[in-house]
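Catalogue entry: protein
Contents: sequence, fold tokens
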Amino acid sequence: MTRTNLVLTVCSLVLVVTGCELFVIGGGARRPIPIELSQSTSPGVVHLFKAELDSGNTTAATELMLSASGRPLLAVEKCDLVDDLLRWRKIMAQQPISETVVDTVNDSTHIVRITLDYVRVMQFSTLRRKQLWWVTKVQDAPKR
């Protein structure tokens, strides 16, 4: 066998061996599941709530909220929320949501945790009423 044939044979063998994956370790990064900004899902209403705050529309953000018992907020309760909404807006200001985790309490109550820019974790209590999801409570996630 000549030297040229040996080199071609070795190169062909290397291409065949490296081209065939017998198994993959790690499998690559997980692709995030896109979340629709709507009230049809609990993470969707949280992302919609944050989008309303990011756009400065605190009135629309309060319209996505209910009391913990499921009744609509009274006008005086919405007025009392103004300071909290401004504080939440400052905390979440234009930071991307890097992770969303949903904990199911029961069929109509979920706790949604979002991580903002891989650093800060916010926790939202959500409630399903008449086939729509609503935010009932917003807070910094408790330390574990």
